[in-house]
Design goal:
- This protein starts with a strand and ends in a 5-residue tail after the last helix.
- The chain has a single domain, classed as Metal-dependent hydrolases (TIM Barrel).
- With about 230 residues, the protein is of the alpha/beta class.
- Strand 6, helix 6 and strand 7 form a beta-alpha-beta unit.
- It is globular, with a radius of gyration of 16 Å.
- It has eight helices and eight strands.
- The strands form two sheets. It has a five-stranded mixed beta sheet with strand order 4-5-6-7-8. Strands 1-2-3 form a three-stranded parallel beta sheet, with helices on one face.
- Bound molecules: zinc ion (ZN) (2 copies).
- The site of one zinc ion has 4 residues, from loops.
- The site of one zinc ion (ZN) has 4 residues, from loops.
Length: about 230
Amino acid sequence: MLNKGDFHIHSNASDGKYNPTEIIILSKINQIDVISIADHNTTAGISEAVEAGRNYGVSVVPAVELSTKFNCESVHLLGYFKNNLYQHDTFQEILKLIKSHRFKKVRKILKNHIDLELKEGKLSVLEGINLLRCFGASVVLAHPMRISNKNIEQVLSLPFDGIEAKYSNTDFNTSLYFINLALSKFSFYTAGSDFHSIKNKNSKHSFIGTVYLNNSEIKYFLKSLELCC
Ligand SMILES: [Zn+2]
Ligand SMILES: [Zn+2]
């Protein structure tokens, strides 16, 4: 039975401090049954996490946190994969290029797969949504409470599958607002600590499992991803 799930954790495959096995162990110690390693623009930590998860009894939903922009504001998207399409060579190549800011080349590859909205630079939110979907992901707007008042309404009008309604250091009323929004406008909501390290001076992030989906919320989320639970 999956009682607690934290679906937004960074490993040292991006800017987290711990390797995927250490994250699995930290999850186990803290009684988190299911997690997502959602590293910035890379899925390099997933296979180790899946393997360690098998040994320690922690389930892993493959994920990535993609960097996009809306107007000039940085917006993060979480892609949750129901299958192994994230391992596709083209997707891996695109992630590698995004990481090294080679957007001209990204756009050259992408134009064969999705409609492009912008001519140059970082991907727009809509381009990011379409890219993730093209490779089998359900797309969640990460930490909407961190998006500026100027842009949030327009960002929320884009076709996400869900939003990260439960996030670290977010008060109850704000979470509730985004939960209601997710259920009325999108398909589901997620919870994520955005864990990076234990000694974290950045108050935006918190420890694994500080916020989580409970048993029924996990079931609903996994069902929405078409993953059984
Ligand atoms: Zn983020
Ligand atoms: Zn993050």
